[in-house]
Amino acid sequence: MTNSCDRPVTDCVSVTASEEYIIARLERAGKTLLAMPDKGYKPGLAQRQHEIVRSIWDAFSWTNAPVLRAPAPTMEDIRVMDEVLPDWVLLIPESKVEVRRIVQCRLMVHPLSGVHMYPWRRLGEVMHMDYKGVQRRHAQGIKIIYEGLLKRLTNGYENGSGAEMRH
After folding, report:
1. Of 119, 130, 142, 152, which is most buried by a Cβ count within 10 Å?
2. How far apart are the first and last CA of the chain?
3. Are 96 and 141 in contact (CB under 8 A)?
4. pLDDT-derived band at 62, boundaries 50, 70, 90
5. In the structure, what pLDDT confidence band is assigned to residue 86 with cuts at 50, 70 and 90?
6. Structural domain boundaries of the chain?
7. pTM of whole model > 0.70?
8. For residue 94, what are the CA distances in angstroms to 66, 76, 91, 101?
9. Neighbour count for residue 32 (Cβ, 10 Å)
């Protein structure tokens, strides 16, 4: 089964199509967040001197091997991330901080491999609960986000703004 972000949803929790869309958008935002460069451009880079190779071992050693980085996110990916984070996660009330943390951890998806940074069982260990309980709380958090977005949508129509949830 694929979703609007062209990524299969592999979660074990049964969800509706709209909740599946929310999961896909959260994961896309998490992937974009992790793909963002951690350092900006520094003017000193243009004046950097080239390294001098002192021996053959220095030239062909892998001690300074380049680290694989995800490609820089597109403007559309950044727009989606700005729309989703932190706005959607903050729809989960502070009284349900455990649910909010679980949703935040699950949205972190590695930008190159597409693997969740926190699989269900690892997240269960971190949260000191069974992984099935983590899955239930995640589903609860997604439902809270869905209901909050639905409330915003209906309030937008009642106020005449014509706001709509984009798919």
Report:
1. 142
2. 16
3. yes
4. low
5. confident
6. 1-36+70-159
7. no
8. 41, 30, 9, 10
9. 24
Q: Give the number of other Cβ atoms within 10 Å of residue 102's Cβ.
A: 28
Exposed, middle or buried by CB within 10 Å (0-12, 13-18, 19+), for 53? exposed
57 Cβ contact list (under 8 Å, min separation 6): none
- Extract the tokens encoding 142: 């997604």
- How much is the average pLDDT of 141-166? 74
Which residue is listed with tokens 């053959």? 56
Q: What is the pLDDT of residues 90-147, one digit of tens each?
A: 999 999 999 999 999 999 999 988 999 999 999 999 999 999 999 999 999 999 999 9
DSSP code of residue 42: -
Q: Tell me the torsion sign for CA atoms 106, 118, 78, 75.
A: negative
pLDDT value at residue 71: 83
Burial of 97 (0-12, 13-18, 19+ CB in 10 A): exposed
Q: How many CA atoms lie within 13 A of 24 on its CB side?
A: 18
